[in-house]
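Quick one, probably user error.
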């Protein structure tokens, strides 16, 4: 198994900016190898986002912020650079949030502003993780979907950050050794296998007890779980949530089995300008992701429908966990 790059605190660091360029841990080849993609222009950053070198809504926002810093350093047209970056992944609202936040920053200040967004996201995730741990029982068993860890954020993670907070005992509710015992069922997350390739890998790096299951086994294992923890790429003003395809199925199964279903997001994922799930743009990706993976081709050559996300109605969500704590229904004023 490849070893994760870490900082001085031992935390996985998939995004590294040195002022002249941006190095991104290539998530397309994990866990087989650790490889880096070097970006020197905003166009290269946008291409890396679109190609899923980096993915996860908060990580996309951080990466785009550094893309704007590179645009300034190279003397690019900043409005044009922002437009290209914004188009790279349409569903994740954090991308728009970061670009709008930087729009009023002078060119010479973009590098520092991007670093601030990165550091802020890591701190937000730590707070979110500790708040999320507080809603879980001692020694919990949880189910998670896609990848919501350090690879998908500025650090620590959202749904996986909650799991980290339990495992590392950073939350007051899980400080003693018995309470810190946590078991994670990791859904493989077809078709791109973010759970199998990335979440399971992150858990192994830190000794978090996990079991990988195929997505279609969720109905079998959910009765053993205390909660489902997922992230999100956009939450509409009414609480409808866009997340990795398969999340809606999980929410329906969780409701059937009486398992709490928590959406773990930083506040930047809440979109007050989007009234409901019908207004969330859902990215569709290429057929090759469904027909095969990593050079292997296993399906017949037939038409493919490959939405990257689905939308879970607010009525199926037990609560949102943000850096400010747990928010429960009704959702009407959460994103306002």
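Nope, works fine. Designed sequence:
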């Amino acid at each position: 198994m490849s070893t994760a790059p870490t900082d001085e605190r031992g935390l996985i660091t998939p995004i590294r900016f040195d002022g002249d360029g941006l190095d991104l841990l290539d998530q397309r080849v994990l866990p087989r190898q650790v490889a880096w993609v070097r970006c020197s222009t905003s166009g290269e950053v946008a291409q890396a986002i679109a190609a899923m070198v980096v993915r996860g809504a908060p990580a996309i926002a951080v990466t785009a912020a550094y893309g704007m810093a590179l645009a300034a350093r190279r003397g690019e047209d900043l409005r044009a650079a922002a437009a290209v970056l914004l188009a790279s992944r349409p569903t994740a609202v954090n991308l728009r949030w970061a670009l709008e936040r930087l729009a009023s920053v002078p060119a010479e200040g973009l590098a520092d502003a991007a670093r601030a967004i990165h550091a802020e996201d890591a701190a937000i995730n730590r707070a979110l993780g500790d708040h999320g741990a507080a809603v879980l029982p001692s020694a919990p068993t949880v189910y998670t979907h896609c990848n919501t860890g350090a690879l998908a954020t500025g650090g620590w993670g959202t749904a996986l950050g909650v799991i980290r907070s339990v495992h590392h005992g950073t939350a007051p509710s899980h400080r003693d050794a018995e309470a810190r015992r946590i078991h994670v069922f990791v859904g493989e997350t077809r078709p791109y296998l973010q759970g199998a390739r990335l979440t399971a890998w992150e858990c192994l790096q830190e000794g978090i007890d996990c079991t990988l299951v195929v997505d279609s086994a969720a109905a079998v294992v959910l009765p053993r779980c205390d909660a489902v923890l997922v992230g999100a790429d956009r939450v509409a003003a009414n609480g409808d949530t866009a997340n990795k395809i398969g999340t809606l199925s999980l929410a329906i199964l969780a409701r059937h089995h009486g398992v709490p279903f928590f959406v773990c997001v930083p506040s930047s994922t809440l979109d007050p300008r989007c009234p409901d799930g019908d207004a969330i743009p859902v990215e569709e990706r290429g057929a090759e992701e469904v027909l095969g993976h990593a050079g292997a081709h296993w399906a017949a050559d037939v038409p493919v429908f490959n939405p990257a996300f689905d939308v879970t109605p607010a009525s199926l969500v037990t609560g949102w966990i943000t850096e400010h704590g747990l928010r429960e229904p009704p959702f009407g004023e959460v994103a306002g």
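The mean pLDDT is 94.
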